[in-house]
Structures are given as structure tokens and as C-alpha cells.
Automatic annotation (TrEMBL), chain A:
This is GPI mannosyltransferase 2. Its EC number is 2.4.1.-. The keyword Membrane applies. The gene is TPHA0H00690. InterPro entries: PIG-V/Gpi18. Mannosyltransferase involved in glycosylphosphatidylinositol-anchor biosynthesis. Pathway: Glycolipid biosynthesis; glycosylphosphatidylinositol-anchor biosynthesis. GO terms for molecular function: dol-P-Man:Man(1)GlcN-acyl-PI alpha-1,6-mannosyltransferase activity. It is a multi-pass membrane protein. Pfam families: Mannosyl_trans2 (PF04188). It comes from Tetrapisispora phaffii (strain ATCC 24235 / CBS 4417 / NBRC 1672 / NRRL Y-8282 / UCD 70-5). Residues 1-16 form the signal peptide.
């Protein structure tokens, strides 16, 4: 309970500082926000766009992707009046629908009419979007706390897993995604459902077997009675996370990992009815959204992407997904397409997260190997490769928020350092403590000082980066 | 969305006082008379066919550079490209107008850039010109000072409150 109170105050403090930075930011480099509001609302005389709080605060929160989400929400209200273009399908309609529905639930149908209706409605949904995004972000930090306890409690003491979980939750609030969750961004919905899915998966796992003598051995198994939790709750959570942000398809690697583990231990029925079935559900949901829905919405009139069907009888199965197609066409996504001289600053923006993520994978593979985090390591590796070689690399600062491996690495290492310092200072000769201390010393032998230096550098970077990213966003400056 | 490019008057560009009377004209004008930045909003009708737009820049100073910036909202699926400058010589007709003095224009192409394409898509574009001093557009000075101030403040906080150390011992 004390932890939750501390976490809440910490969250409120960070958000208050961030929104103060937004309020005091002097101007926007990209001046298109006023144009967006004029186009969405027809407020030609600027009366409401230029009111004190709108011009000094809310308008500054409409930068980069939030523009698309705002348009999508307004589109939900009047789909016949606003044209939706194909590139806008890159942005989650689940997120915009959620804000639209919550606004409708809170405020009810609009009672005002005409021009005022539009402008008031736009600012109303901006406020609802901000509150919803921040609440989800806050709840996700608590979910991450429980996920971390579940993840680490399988191979360490309760005290240790709790300490690591507390650190992870605090770090999550000041992680590099934080600079974007001041506006209507879809990331919170994805990381919240990713964490829910990972928690339900963890609850379904049976990682320990105790024999008659009370000795425990590590194993991989799934609890039979947890079938609904694994197949329904985990799959559904991952599907929502993936429908909201397509990159969450990487969560499917958890199912793949579980398939191989059960195959290895010859638990064929469990393999079929747990991870394989869940994986098929996730994959089907992916095909449905990225191929089927898009194909029957735009084809055959659209041409181009529509003509790339692989099988004639299943025309919607095209060579690349619709998401991939629009990303390539409108954002120049592709192998090494982003590797140009003018993008060097963007690689520098991404560098701290690339370094910490690579270090985290090495830490949990070589220095502190645990089978439990193996699928997370594989997701990290695959996603890193995609981001570095195919995507706009600087988005790593926000899109990696659904994989907390770097936060686990920092928390785990910090806990070990603290523990070592504590045991060095005290003369406690308790047998159990000695055993644990020896264990940690043994593990620590493999941990070089470079990890500490990287963590220190990363935390200093976050200290400066979160306020800077907030200012960049409010000033409509890159990185996006 | 934003596209920028730097412009400066050629060395042999004559110095004269703008009288601003070339008769009725269809193009827009940005003037830096007694100011170091100016902005207008244009409302072009964009189709799938590329259309070139011209904006006259007035009262620019020789040996100074300026940043021309076009901003449009991402809800307008347009793309702006081929941004360039153009000088109309004295007494030459341009879009039905003539002037005794040379005229300095910026030109850029606008095209629709998404599916479905709309026959007559109304879009709004902010075009601004800003004096560049020490390699930085003057309208960015306040933001840069704000960023530096924030960095200094964070640095001071870290120094006196040891924020990173506090985070690590949570």
C-alpha cells in the first residue's frame, strides 16, 4: 500500500513537471496545429482556438501522431463528413474508438449545435484523451509491478522480486516513452494489454516441481486449469495490443517459445491446446486486420497493393500486409532506407535505448541466464533488428515500451549492487544470508563494471531526455 | 508536416524601395519590412495533378539568409516538393502583373499524396519566411533558450538533490 501511494505521488509529480514544461514552452516550430483545428472545426474566426488555455496549453499537445488520432476521433463522430485516407489506417482505430466511446459515456450526446459544436467537441475529446492516456499509463506501471514480481519470483526470494518490481515501476514512469504520453498517443493501450497478457501467461505457467523431500527443480509446464487464462485472456490481450499497435505481433514469440518448450518435454496435447491454439488465434487476428479488412475496404478499386495477391482463390492474401504497404509508401520504411547522412541525429536519439536493450539481452543471456526471460530476449532481438534496419529508428524511444527488459535489467543490477553493499557493511552471519550472498557473489563475478557504467549513463540520459522530449513535443520539433 | 529551405538574395540584386503596386495579382506576398519574420496562410485547391505556387518575398536584405518554411497539417494528404527561388526581371509580365523592379519569388509544387484522391481538395498551408542569424532562424531562439534553461535547471537539480542516486535507491 505504501508503495502504491509513493508510486502515485511520483507519477503525479512527473506529470505535473511535464505539463508545466508544455505550458511554458514558447512557440511551435511546425505551425500547422492552428490549421488542423481550423480544418477539423471550421472555426475561421479563431475565437476558441486562441483562448488562453487552448493556445498556451492544449494546442501544444497536438503534435506528430496525435493529429491523426484526433482526426480519427472526430471521424468517429461524423464519418460521412470527413474523408479517411489510406495512410491514416497506420494509426490505431481502437484507440480513437475508445476515446470516442468514453467521451460519449461521460458527456453524453452533444447538446450544442453548429460551429461551436465542432470546436467544443474537439477540445472536449482532447481533454478526455489526455486523462484516459495518463490513467492507462499509471495503471500500466502498477501492472508492470505485478508482472515483475511474477517474473522474478520464480528464481529469487520474495523480497528481491518485490524490490526489483518497485524499481521497475518507478523507472517505467520516467522511461523514454514518457515524453510522448503527454498527448493522445496509442502506446499506453498497447503496453497495458501486453502487460495484462504477460501476467495471465505467467499465472498459467508452472515453473517449479517439488519432490517428496521438498527439493524444487526448475521446469516448464502449463497448469491445466489455467486454460481459459492462457488461451482466452492472454490471447485476447495480445490481440488487442496488436490491433492497437501492429508491432505487438512480436508478442506471438511467447507462444512460439511455449510451443517449443512443450514439444521438448513431449507434452503434445498441452502444446496444441495452449500455445499453438493461442498463436493461431493471434495470427488469425493479424491476418484479419492487416489483410482481410483492408483488402475488402479498398480493393479492387485501389489497384497497386490489391493486385499483389499470392493465391487467386484467397485474394486478400497479398505479398505484404496493408500496414507494411502504407508504411513503405508514405514513410519510406524498408531495408536500410533510413540509413542516410541526414538521419544521423535520429540514430543518436535512439542510441541510448539500443545500447541498454542490447546490454539487457546479454545480461539475461550470458551473465545471469534464465530460461524464464528467454522469449522476452528473443522479442527484443527481433524487434531491435526491425527498428535498426527497417524502421525510423528513433521511434524505439516509445515503441519498445511494451517490452520492459531494459527496466528489469536496470532494476536487477541496482538491487544486486545494493545487496552487495549492504552485506559488506553488516556483519550478519546468518547461514541463509551467507548462502544467498555467496550466490550473488558468484553471479556477480560475471558482471563487469561496464554494466554499471551503462546504467549510470542511461539514467543520466533519461533525467535530461524526458524533459527535453516533452519540450520537443510541445514545440513540434523532432524526434517524432 | 514541414518543408524548409534557405534563401538569400543574389549579390547583384539591386537595392530599391518596395512600393508594392503591381496591380491586382493572384499570388501571395511575404514582406519583411520592419520585421524579421512573416507568415501567411494560403488555401490552395489541390488535385492529383501537380500545381506550382508562387509567393513573392519583399524587403529581404542582401547578404542575409532566410528560412522559408511551409507547414501543413497531417490531416491534409498533400506533399510539397521542388521548392526553389525565381527572379522576375523588371518590366516582365508575371501572372498578369509587371513591376519596374526585379521581383524575388519562391516557388513550390503541391500534389495530393494519398488514396482516395479528391478532385478539389481544400488544404491550408502556412508559409513563413524568417531571418537566419548565426545559422539559426530567429523564431527558434526562444525555444533554444528555453531548452538550455531547462537543461541547466535539471543539471542544478541533479547536482544538489542527486536525483539519479535517489532513483537508484527507490
Amino acid at each position: 500500500m505504501v508503495f502504491i501511494v509513493k508510486l502515485t505521488w511520483f507519477f503525479l509529480l512527473i506529470k505535473a513537471l511535464q505539463y508545466s514544461l508544455v505550458y511554458f514552452s514558447p512557440s511551435q516550430f511546425d505551425t500547422s496545429t492552428e490549421l488542423l483545428l481550423k480544418q477539423l472545426t471550421n472555426d475561421t474566426d479563431h475565437q476558441l482556438i486562441d483562448t488562453y488555455w487552448n493556445s498556451n496549453f492544449y494546442n501544444k499537445l497536438l503534435s506528430w501522431d496525435s493529429v491523426f488520432f484526433l482526426k480519427a476521433i472526430v471521424h468517429e463522430k461524423s464519418p460521412n463528413d470527413i474523408i479517411k485516407f489510406e495512410h491514416e489506417y497506420a494509426f490505431s482505430n481502437i484507440w480513437s474508438k475508445l476515446i470516442y466511446v468514453i467521451d460519449l459515456y461521460i458527456h453524453g450526446p452533444l447538446s450544442i449545435t453548429g460551429k461551436d459544436m465542432d470546436i467544443n467537441y474537439v477540445y472536449r475529446v482532447i481533454k478526455v484523451g489526455l486523462v484516459v492516456g495518463n490513467i492507462i499509463f499509471y495503471l500500466s506501471s502498477i501492472l508492470l509491478y505485478y508482472l515483475t514480481i511474477l517474473t522474478f519470483s520464480n528464481h529469487s526470494t520474495d523480497l528481491k522480486s518485490k524490490k526489483i518490481a518497485e524499481k521497475t515501476a518507478f523507472l517505467f514512469i520516467i522511461s523514454s516513452v514518457s515524453g510522448f504520453i503527454i498527448s493522445i498517443y496509442s502506446e499506453p493501450l498497447s503496453f497495458m494489454f501486453a502487460f495484462i497478457g504477460l501476467i495471465t501467461r505467467e499465472l498459467s505457467l508452472n515453473n517449479r516441481d517439488t519432490d517428496k523431500n521438498g527439493n524444487t527443480t526448475e521446469l516448464f509446464d502449463l497448469k491445466l486449469y489455467c486454460w481459459p487464462l492462457y488461451v482466452i485472456a492472454t490471447s485476447l490481450s495480445f490481440i488487442i495490443a496488436m490491433w492497437n499497435r501492429t508491432n505487438c505481433i512480436f508478442l506471438g514469440i511467447y507462444f512460439l517459445f511455449d510451443v517449443f518448450q512443450l514439444l521438448y518435454s513431449r507434452k503434445f496435447y498441452k502444446m496444441i491446446f495452449f500455445p499453438l491454439l493461442s498463436g493461431i488465434l493471434l495470427f488469425t487476428a493479424f491476418i484479419y486486420k492487416e489483410y482481410y479488412v483492408a483488402y475488402y475496404q479498398f480493393c479492387p478499386e485501389r489497384g497497386e497493393w490489391c493486385t499483389t495477391s499470392i493465391i487467386d482463390k484467397v485474394p486478400f492474401l497479398t505479398k505484404q500486409s496493408f500496414y507494411n504497404f502504407i508504411q513503405t509508401k508514405y514513410w519510406n520504411i524498408g531495408f536500410l532506407n533510413y540509413w542516410t547522412l541526414n538521419n544521423i541525429p535520429n540514430f543518436l536519439f535512439a542510441l541510448p535505448n539500443i545500447i541498454i536493450l542490447i546490454t539487457a539481452t546479454i545480461y539475461f543471456t550470458k551473465k545471469y541466464p534464465t530460461r524464464h526471460i528467454t522469449p522476452t530476449i528473443w522479442i527484443t532481438r527481433c524487434f531491435l533488428l526491425v527498428l535498426i534496419f527497417f524502421a525510423h529508428v528513433q521511434i524505439i524511444n516509445r515503441v519498445f515500451s511494451f517490452i520492459p527488459i531494459h527496466l528489469w535489467f536496470i532494476s536487477d543490477k541496482l538491487y544486486r549492487n545494493e545487496y552487495l553493499m549492504f552485506t559488506k557493511k553488516t556483519d550478519v552471519c546468518h547461514e541463509k544470508l551467507e548462502v544467498e550472498r555467496d550466490g550473488i557473489k558468484n553471479m556477480n563475478r560475471f558482471t563487469s563494471d561496464s554494466d554499471d557504467k551503462i546504467i549510470k549513463f542511461y539514467l543520466y540520459w533519461l533525467l535530461f531526455w524526458v524533459p527535453l522530449q516533452t519540450i520537443f513535443f510541445a514545440s513540434f520539433l523532432p524526434p517524432a | 508536416n514541414t518543408e524548409t529551405f534557405l534563401v538569400s538574395l543574389p549579390a547583384d540584386y539591386p537595392i530599391f524601395k518596395y512600393v508594392g503596386d503591381v496591380g491586382a495579382h493572384d499570388y501571395h506576398v511575404l514582406s519583411l519590412n520592419n520585421t524579421n519574420n512573416d507568415k501567411i496562410t494560403i488555401n490552395p485547391i489541390v488535385s492529383a495533378r501537380t500545381v506550382t505556387h508562387y509567393i513573392e518575398l519583399q524587403s529581404l536584405k542582401k547578404f542575409e539568409s532566410y528560412m522559408v518554411k511551409t507547414c501543413w497539417s497531417a490531416v491534409s494528404p498533400i506533399s510539397i516538393h521542388n521548392m526553389d527561388t525565381m527572379i522576375v526581371p523588371p518590366l516582365q509580365d508575371f501572372m498578369g502583373t509587371t513591376s519596374e523592379h526585379p521581383r524575388f519569388f519562391i516557388a513550390f509544387d503541391i500534389t495530393q499524396d494519398s488514396y482516395p484522391t479528391i478532385d478539389m481538395l481544400e488544404s491550408l498551408i502556412n508559409v513563413s519566411v524568417t531571418n537566419v542569424k548565426l545559422g539559426i532562424p530567429v523564431d527558434l531562439y526562444s525555444t533554444i533558450i528555453y531548452i538550455l534553461f531547462t537543461c541547466g535547471f535539471v543539471f542544478a537539480l541533479e547536482r544538489y538533490l542527486n536525483l539519479v542516486a535517489r532513483i537508484t535507491t527507490i
